[in-house]
Amino acid sequence: MCKQRLKHPQKECGFTLLDSLLQLIVLVLFAQFFLLFYSWYSQKDNGMFNNNELQWEIFVFQLQKELTHTKQFSRNTIQNISYSSDRGTLSVAIGPGELKRGKGYQPLLFGITTVKFEYSDYILDATINFENGKGRSRKFIVPNNTR
């Protein structure tokens, strides 16, 4: 085999310009897929699949459902509300790093720093700041209210 190479040095194999351009195009396509994946992955933390977002939406759904059937509502402090319904008297208060049922152990939200409840004209405005620096706010309608 070596003897044939020595006899015909003009038939040496190597890269041609066409081979190099084809490999460059394949490399650019893979780079585009990598950039697309990277941008998707960075957006994933800001979307609905974020753990804090899921917790927040579940908390909002649960609180609105309970406030819909409220017979009596009161805001005890800026960080504590209580309301009564067919289930009895329930309250929501801040604990160490979590929002939980008052006088209980049922956590509603984890990883929070501050909670602020404001109430006026049958509208409850809840503002919650998470440990990662993001804040969320939602307004709830409180029907059948006797202050």
Write up what this structure looks like.
It is a single chain. A hairpin with a 4-residue loop joins strand 7 and strand 8 (135-141). This protein is α+β, with helices and mostly antiparallel strands and 147 residues long. The model has no long low-confidence stretch (mean pLDDT 80). It contains three helices and eight strands. The strands form two sheets. A five-stranded antiparallel beta sheet has the order 1-2-3-4-5, covered by helices on one side. The longest helix is centred in the N-terminal third of the chain and has 28 residues, at 17-44. The protein starts with a helix and ends in a 6-residue tail after the last strand.
Total number of helices: 3
Order of the strands making up the biggest sheet: 1-2-3-4-5
User: Which structural class fits the helix and strand makeup?
Assistant: alpha+beta
Instruction: Assign an overall shape.
Output: rod-shaped
C-alpha-based Rg, rounded: 31 Å
Task: List low-pLDDT spans.
Answer: none
List the helices and strands and how they pair.
Blueprint: H1 2-7, H2 17-44, H3 51-68, E1 72-77, E2 80-85, E3 88-95, E4 98-101, E5 107-110, E6 112-120, E7 123-130, E8 135-141
Antiparallel strand pairs: 1-2, 2-3, 3-4, 4-5, 6-7, 7-8
